[in-house]
Amino acid sequence: MSDTWVPDRCAVVGIGTTAYSKASGVSVTSLAAEASLAAIADAGLVPADIDGLIRSDYDETSQVALADALGIDDIAYWGQNGPGGSGPAAMVGQAVAAIVSGQATNVLVYRALNGRSGRRLGKGVSVDGGVGGNSSYLELFSPYGVTSPGQFFAMIARRYQEEWGLTSEALAEIAMVCRRRANANPAAQMYDRPLTLDDYYASRMISDPLRLYDFCLETDGAAALVVTSAERARDCAQPPAMIRSVAQGTGTRVGPGQMYPVLMGESLDTLTSRRVAERLYARAGLTASDVDVAQLYDCFTITVFLQLPDYGFCDRLDASAFVEGGALDVGGRIPINTAGGQLSEAYIHGMNHIVEGVRQIRGTSTAQVPGAEVSLVTSAPPPGASALLLVSA
Known about the structure:
This protein is an alpha/beta fold. Helices cover 31% and strands 17% of the residues.
């Protein structure tokens, strides 16, 4: 396969977020506008400088609605990516594509949702709820009781226990690491909520083997960032986080539907993030050993666990021992989710992971990894995945 990716042609120069809450009290467009204005100002730009807008396919705020809210007169480029949590890193890649192809100069990437007070993505649905068909294949699973992402990932976790020896202690450690990072981050929803091991095991089992604290937070909020060329980045207000590489992938065999048909695969050894990792590292000219800090997509603790071998941080059979040994904590082999992640900061479909990845490159994280120069951000295992590597200039 021919690959003409050239590293470091673009950079993230602005980041912005709203407060994260259970009830924002405002529309998703208001949230998107607030985070976007913060990102634009962070870059030292004004709304008129933005000529490209990219959203998640799950976002309820259209590009034209946000442009109107921001007072942008003309959009030269607009796009979207997904599905869902697979999209954030890919949305940055789409911004890069628009810039290097000459279709835009400064691209705003955003995700806004009232994920607690409004549409709850973790809620179970049925065929009668209007989700059956439409290429989702949910109608083949819901009669047997599989109606929510939590149930899907619980089945993945159970199978991983059988095939590769996943331990409950490893899942607990992932939840605890993310909570410790959130306890140091005043912006996190779980900032003032310490989590003990006893708390973890005492929490209710929601979908065996996943407990309450294995699930991410349903959140109202928004996050946004500004991408521009390396040349223009030099004139922006903040140190640029250079985009060394970005990649998407579906894995070796594309399955139908939104998510659930992945359960029918021959092995968990063929999930999407492995192929993404290969492509990502090859484009960057880097390996897992070069990565200083990682923001790993964590809609559930099991999704972090799935990605560790795929991105080359450990062997699949040794993953539980790797996690239990403290490798994911600050000072460990690969510190993860340093703002608290979706498990304990906020569930903004992974867009907040990119914001934190940029902070690590800038040196402004509340759990800063000393000397961090290479920051990995991932966006979801199945059904697709994407990821990016950010580096210091």
